[in-house]
Amino acid sequence: MAAAAGAATPSSSKIVTCRDAQGQPIITQPNDPRCYKPPPNEAERSAAEESRRKELEAYNACKADQRSMQSLLYRYPAKERHDAARRAALSQVETALRVSGARMEQLKNERRRLLDEAEFYPSGNLPPKLRRDLDGNSALIEAQTQAIANQKDEAAQKNAFYDQELVKLQKLWLPQRAETRGCVAPRE
Question: Which helix (H) or strand (E) holds 188?
Fold first, then answer.
């Protein structure tokens, strides 16, 4: 019976030695209020402040992320709305690409005309106006090529943006699971 009573004692009843406010040793439980804890030194206070600051930053980032996700879900409650927004954003870029492509064709046709005219000067001694026109055309073709490349980059960036949103939304559109947790407020 004594063995059963000894086994029933909780393992949380540890005995520790600490000092009271006068510096006298006390043998007691760890949470005894008589145990004196000296005030934290500068390094401990600084570490505690830093820890508190990091907890607060993490909490604020979590809350901002929650607001962002809620806003995203409100804006796109279904995949069809998100797809429509993607198409609308890309249609502007596609229109600009078509216009740029048509302009590039005009410039290339003008370039062919100028080169045909330059064939009449086999020694390469072109008149100044023809040389200026060829140089200007070359500069315009280069600028148009750069504009087309920028528009393709913009389309790729928009696609990447909508792809990232879609990954987030696919998680949000799932039925809520029990393991989703809110943000944990920092300790006081």
Answer: none
Distance of CA 87 to the CA centre of its chain: 22
- Asked if 151 contacts 100 with a C-beta cutoff of 8 angstroms, the reply is yes
Length of the chain: 188
Q: C-alpha distances in angstroms, 57 versus 14, 15, 94, 116? A: 37, 38, 41, 68
Gyration radius of the chain's alpha carbons: 37
Question: 13-23: per-residue pLDDT in tens?
Answer: 688 888 887 88
Q: Which positions ≥6 away from 140 have C-beta within 8 Å?
A: 107
Task: For residue 172, give both structure tokens.
Answer: 């949000």
pLDDT digits (tens, 9 = 90+) for 111-163: 999 999 888 887 778 899 999 999 999 999 999 999 999 999 999 999 999 99
* pTM of the predicted structure, to 2 decimals: 0.60
d(CA 138, CA 129): 14
Separation of first and last alpha carbons in the chain: 46
The amino acid present at 119, given as its one-letter code, is E
